[in-house]
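A brief tutorial aside. Many learners find it easier to grasp structure tokens once they have seen a single protein encoded end to end. The record that follows does exactly this for Rhamnogalacturonyl hydrolase YesR. Read the sequence first, then the structure, and try to relate runs of similar tokens to stretches of the chain.
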Amino acid sequence: MKTFQLLLISLLLGHLCFAQDIKPQEVRNIMKKVSDWQMDHINDSYSNKKPHHPLHWTNAALYVGMAKWAQMANDDTYFNWLKGIGNQNNWQLHERKYHADDHAVGRMYAALYRKYGEEEMLEPTIEQFGFLMHHPANTKLNWGSPYHQDRWNWCDALFMSPPVWADLYNITGEQKYLDFMLEEYKATTEFLFDAEEHLYYRDERFKGKLDQGTKIFWGRGNGWVYAGLADILSNLKPQTKEYEYFLDIYNKMSIKLLELQTPEGHWAMSLLGQKFYPTPETSGSSFFVYGLTWGINNGILKGTKYKKAVVKGWNAMASYVNDKGMLGYVQPIGAEPGNASPDKTEVYGTGAFLSAGSEIYKMVGGK
């Protein structure tokens, strides 16, 4: 009995030690610093020669994290900023009706609808998704097929569109949104998920292709998928068949990601190629920290090994924020492992960082 008590005390002290490594106020402070810098620099050119369109997928990923920060901030500045973007664009999705990237801004609209309850915020998304359900794309998922990106045939798409469908299901209670999303998600997973490695290929072009003798699983691409899984699961009822489907993928990826974290705390740009891609990459890594910490906070991922991983991961991400609040080591727009440097950032990296911070804050006792 005494041995058991000592073991229990040891485990509790270990848990407290992890929590004490990160202070809630420190998380708030760095999230504010990063969000404020990003708002001041929203019109920088980043990966392109001109600023991103406000409804572009890059900014949409930023808004996902910014909305999470706005809920924590005790300051309407951030919600007002997001609401202003919606009003200026008449709450429309971006240009392409079928393309998942152009659905992603719907994530922000759903977050604002949950706060303000104004129907105009969701009406265009509901109308467009209704059209998609009645006129589904019939293209194959093969990369060379005509209009192939009218369906989710690249793994990033699983962050961009499916969580919006899950949001609409959760908000309206209408099963049709979940049914459509689940069918398409299953098709993508059957096409791109590696059953041996429990990771997603970016798209068909990378299946069977090797880099330095390793399969190519793009870090950020899998970060998109993993963060999207957490957001989908947040919208579903536990113990339902849909929840169990997504939970199975989430659990398989979680175990694999724990194995692949580098000693420094980040994840490599090519997840199986740490040796060949030693440079940190903060957009994918931040989304992994977000998804793992979400699992801890929701009682899905249990044990000190996960807490150790997210503490190490968060501390690494925070160390790449410069004195002004810019998050460095964000890989520019791309579709495969590449380059990142301390002086390079992108809006989606900020969004991933803020998402991670929102869950880390909860984990360490923030209210």
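Self-check: Residues 241-260 form the longest helix (20 residues). If you spotted this yourself, you are ready for the next section.
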